[in-house]
Amino acid sequence: MGAIALKAVEKWFGNVQVIKGIDLTIADGEFVVFVGPSGCGKSTLLRMIGGLEDTSRGAIEIDGAEVTDQPPSKRGLAMVFQSYALYPHMSVAENMGFSLKMAGAPAAEWKAKVDDAAAILKLESYLERRPKDLSGGQRQRVAIGRSIVRDPTAFLFDEPLSNLDAALRVEMRLEIARLHRDLKRTMIYVTHDQVEAMTLADRIVVLEYGHVAQVGTPRELYERPANLFVAQFIGSPK
Ligand code: ADP
Ligand code: MG
């Protein structure tokens, strides 16, 4: 579970084509990073995979089943954004368990899942706090915890660390790497930060205004960038 395939996907906003026919296969458990300049279509592509944006043409498959027209709730994926939008009036535990509770899970069940996620994220001693009494890094952990409890087949991250200061970004980057090692789930991670891309990715997809400039391991991209655009983006000496 957790294999994702994009088949000639396109996105048009009116008569502007933002995603220009992308083919990509992501293996179960793979950590794939989308990089590229602002406005190149990273968020749009991620939102299409998550079902928050419809796909104008082409198909999206999860584990071989077409999900192109399925709503987000039927895709089994979890999205984590840079703005974590926690409910201020709920405790950390309630924030993390909310979606399970809404789906009708009994209290004992959602609380057990929240406890498991809290242990993974080292949030055990914060479960009764309100979001306002947490640091930025802790809030981001709660946002990630909220997705872990749903046991998704894949995690979709859209620049989850860009609101954090530099030191915290490093800490959270290591945390996300550890999460991937522990959970062994597919992760698709959007960033414009080359260091995040190079250190987290099994494979990097470099996007250039709606198309794929190159796909490869960090090492392949660094050593053999396909063109100057990739070289400049990855910071390799071509
Ligand atoms: P990135 O995440 O790489 O910065 P986006 O996917 O947000 O890029 O945006 C890609 C392009 O699509 C940009 O030109 C943006 O202005 C445009 N775009 C994004 N969302 C919409 C929308 N809802 N309506 C019209 N244009 C949009
Ligand atoms: Mg974006």
From TrEMBL:
Domain ABC transporter: 4-234
Organism of provenance: Thioclava dalianensis
Family: Belongs to the ABC transporter superfamily.
GO cellular component term, pick one: maltose transport complex
Alphabetized UniProt keyword annotations: ATP-binding, Nucleotide-binding, Transport
Shown part of the complete sequence: 1 to 238 of 347
Highest taxon, organism lineage: Bacteria
Name this protein carries in UniProt: ABC transporter ATP-binding protein
GO molecular function, one term: ATP binding
Coiled coil regions in record: none
